Amino acid sequence: MGEEKVKGPASYFPSIETKYGRPIAEWQAVVRAALPAKHMELVALLKDQHGMGHGHANAIVAHTLAEDAG
Fold it and tell me: Which of 31, 33, 46, 69 could anchor a disulfide with 57, C-beta 3.0 to 4.6 Å?
């Protein structure tokens, strides 16, 4: 059996790290530092303060919140 393909928000992570030059753990720390903000407030923060595209910002927020809930 081959490696399982990454699905969901994490599938964006390699391109996010390449485009923005920071590891996902650092982006997750930015999101966690802004909690208890709502999902879309966190997306807006990444977009407005860090120049991130909507899809990438949403992927990081969704993955981080899901990780913290589980």
Answer: 46
Phi, psi values for residue 22, rounded to 5°: -135, 145
The pLDDT tens digits of the residues spanning 9-21 come to: 889 999 999 999 9
**24 within 8 A of 60, measured Cβ to Cβ:** yes
Whole-model pTM? 0.89
Residue 56, C-beta contacts closer than 8 angstroms, at least 6 positions apart: 12, 15, 16, 19, 20, 46
User: What residues have CB less than 8 Å from 61, skipping those under 6 apart?
Assistant: 31, 39, 42, 43, 46
